[in-house]
Amino acid sequence: MKGPSVTSESVIPPAPDFEPPAPPDPEIRAQAQARQVLLTKPSGSLGRLEELSVWVASCQGVCPPRMFQRPRVIVFAGDHGIAQGGVSAFPTEVTAQMVANIRAGGAAINVLADNAGAGVRVLDMAVDADTDPSVSAYKVRRSSGSIDREDAMTDEETLRAIAAGRAIADEEVDSGADLLIVGDMGIGNTTPAATLIAAITDTEPVAAVGRGTGIDDAGWMLKTAAIRDGLRRARSYTRDAVGLLRTVSGADLAAMAGFLAQAAVRRTPVILDGLVVTASALISEEFAPGAREWWVAGHRSTEPAHTIALRHLGLEPILELNMRLGEGSGAIMALPVLQGAVATLAHMATFAEAGVSDNTGVDAEDHPAVDAEDHPAVDAEDHPAVDAEHHPAVDAEHHPAVDAGTGSD
Ligand SMILES: Cc1cc2ncn([C@H]3O[C@H](COP(=O)(O)O)[C@@H](O)[C@H]3O)c2cc1C
Ligand SMILES: O=C(O)c1cccnc1
C-alpha cells in the first residue's frame, strides 16, 4: 500500500505516510481492569460499561480515567456527481442548505451534540456551491465526480483531501479535543460509501446497497447499478487505498479517512458513526494499521453495508436505535454511555473505601448458598469483569483493551 504502483491508467503516488499509531496503553489497561474488580458491585454487573471504561482509561493513559472535557463533532460535507443519477431521494442543493443549517445550529447533530455536551464544526470539502469562508478553508473542489463513470477526483485532490483531514485532526487535538466524532453531510454519499465497503470486503452490490435517504424501488435499482459500475472501475485498486479513494469516494470521504488515521496517531479516542464514516474508517485502517484500536462504534445504522464494515473492523456497536441519518448523530448518542462508563471507573467507591464486604472470603464449598455454579457472577476467576470470551460482543483480537487475559502484555 505504501510504494508507488503502476497501473494502466496512471502512476499512483504513495499513500500518505502516517506514523504507525501506538496502541492504547496496555499497562493502564491492566490497572483499569484491576480497579474495575474493586468497585462496589458484583464483577461484570456493569456489562459493557466496564469494558468501555477500561478502553477510555487505556486511551487516556491514566487510571482512573477522566471525564471527557472537550468532545467534538466534525462534520465533513461534500457533493457527489452520482447524486444526479437518481440514487438519492433528495436533490443536491440540500447539501449546501444543510451545511448552513448545521452552522446555524438547527440540524439533528446540533441538538444532539448540545444534549451530550459536545461542540460541532462543519467543513465544506466538496460542496457544489460557494459556502461561507468559515467552513470552506479546506475545500478541495466543487462536487466529486460521478463514480459510476469517472474518478471522484484526481490523485492530487485525493492527497490534498487526506492531508486536509489530517490537518483538521491536528487542529482539534491541539486545541484540546479529548474525544472526536466524525459526521457526514452530502446528498448521494451513501452510494460511494457502499461502493468503498463492497470493494474492500468483496461484497456484491445487492448486499451492500441500502435505502439511504429513503429511495423507492426504482431508485434502489439505479443505486445498485451505480455501485456495480463503481466496483467495476475500482477493481484494480482494491489493494490501493489512495487509488480506491480516487476512483470511488469523494473529497469528503478522503478527508474523513485522513482525519481518523491522524486521530489515532495523536492518541485521541473516536466514536464512529454510521455507514459513511465507517466506510472511510476502512480506508483509514489501511493508512494507519491499528488505528481501529482508538475507535468505538457508536451505533449500528440500518444501512446493510454498515454492518458489513463493522464486522470487517471487528467492532461491535454500542447502540442500536434504527438510525440512518449520518451527521454523526448515531455516534453522539453513544457519548453519554461512554461518559457513564468513565464515571463508574473514576468515581465509584471501592469495597475497601465504602466498607462493603466483597466476596473474597466467600468459599463456595463452605457456603453452598453462593455456589459458584449456580451463581457464576460471584466466581471472580471464571468471570473476570471484562472477559472477552464470556462477552463475545467484544472482539478480543481487535480490541485487546478489553481482553482481561492479555492485560499485562
Ligand atoms: C435533510 C437531510 C439531512 C441530512 N442529514 C444527513 N443526511 C444524510 O443523507 C444523505 C445521504 O443519503 P443519500 O445517499 O440517500 O443521499 C447525506 O446527506 C447524509 O449526510 C441528510 C439528508 C437529508 C435529505
Ligand atoms: O449510516 C449513515 O451514515 C447514513 C445513512 C443514511 C443516510 N446517510 C448516512
TrEMBL record:
- What protein is this chain from? Nicotinate-nucleotide--dimethylbenzimidazole phosphoribosyltransferase
Residues at the active site: 327
Q: What reaction gets catalysed by this protein? A: 5,6-dimethylbenzimidazole + nicotinate beta-D-ribonucleotide = alpha-ribazole 5'-phosphate + nicotinate + H(+)
One Pfam family in the UniProt entry: DBI_PRT
**Matching SUPFAM superfamilies:** Nicotinate mononucleotide:5,6-dimethylbenzimidazole phosphoribosyltransferase (CobT) (SSF52733)
Compositionally biased, Basic and acidic residues: which spans?
364-401
Question: What are the protein's UniProt keywords?
Answer: Cobalamin biosynthesis, Glycosyltransferase, Transferase
**GO MF annotation, one:** nicotinate-nucleotide-dimethylbenzimidazole phosphoribosyltransferase activity
What InterPro entries does its record include? Nict_dMeBzImd_PRibTrfase, Nict_dMeBzImd_PRibTrfase_bact, Nict_dMeBzImd_PRibTrfase_N, Nict_dMeBzImd_PRibTrfase_sf
Pro residues bias spans: 13-25
Which example biological process does GO assign this protein? cobalamin biosynthetic process
Identify the stretch(es) annotated as Disordered.
1-27, 359-409
Its pathway is: Nucleoside biosynthesis; alpha-ribazole biosynthesis; alpha-ribazole from 5,6-dimethylbenzimidazole: step 1/2
Top-rank EC class of the record's enzyme: transferase
| Record family assignment | Belongs to the CobT family.
Which CDD domains does UniProt cross-reference here?
DMB-PRT_CobT
- In the Enzyme Commission scheme, what number(s) does this protein have? 2.4.2.21
Q: Where is the composition biased (Polar residues)?
A: 1-10
Is this entry keyworded Signal?
A: no
Q: Which PANTHER family match?
A: NICOTINATE-NUCLEOTIDE--DIMETHYLBENZIMIDAZOLE PHOSPHORIBOSYLTRANSFERASE (PTHR43463:SF1)
